[in-house]
Structure formats: structure tokens, C-alpha cells
Amino acid sequence: MYAWEFRVAEARLDAFLEAYGETGAWVALFRTAPGYLRTELHRDRRDPSRFVTLDYWESESAWRRFREERARDFEALDTRCDELTLEEREIGRFEPAGRS
Fold first, then answer.
1. CB-based contact 31:93 (threshold 8 Å)
2. Is residue 99 part of a domain?
3. Containing domain of residue 16, as a range?
4. CATH of residue 47
5. Residues 74, 29: contact at Cβ < 8 Å?
6. Does residue 18 form part of some domain?
7. pLDDT in tens, 31-46
8. Is 1:95 a contact under the CB 8 Å cutoff?
């Protein structure tokens, strides 16, 4: 699972939700890849400008293959979405506890 944090300006909120939501451009791109499971978008209850996305993949190798094969599409979408956020940072890459 890959976790990202975003801060969004109020004026860009609708566009951000459209791009990062369950029917948005990011999910549409991820769905083209074997091994993609789902994305969850969460909004901070105390800070409505803060969001977290959780991207689930069957394996790290599936994610890596997607990033290699669709690098150009990923970068193009990332560039288009830059204007939607004030800040973006990777929180981390996680796996279920107890997995080797």
C-alpha cells in the first residue's frame, strides 16, 4: 500500500476531488494496470484542506511494473495535477504486518 498526503487550496477542492476520487483520472490510470486493487481517498476531519490517498496493489512488483510501463502517462497526469495541490508528499510504502 502506498500512502500520499496532499494539501489543497479551497478554490481547487472540486477539481482535486474529481481527479483523485474513486472515478477520477488517477484511478482510471491505475485500473489499466494488472495488480492494481483500489484507491481510497480520505479527508482529515480537523483540517479540511488535508487529504490522504491509499493505493493498494497486489504486490510491489505489480506497482513497479506499472510505474515502468506507464511512466510517461504517470508523469503527464502528475504534471497536470500539480496545480491542484499546495503540497504533496509520500507518507510511505506499507505492507500488512506479519508478512515476510
1. no
2. no
3. 2-93
4. 3.30.70.100
5. yes
6. yes
7. 999 999 999 999 999 9
8. yes
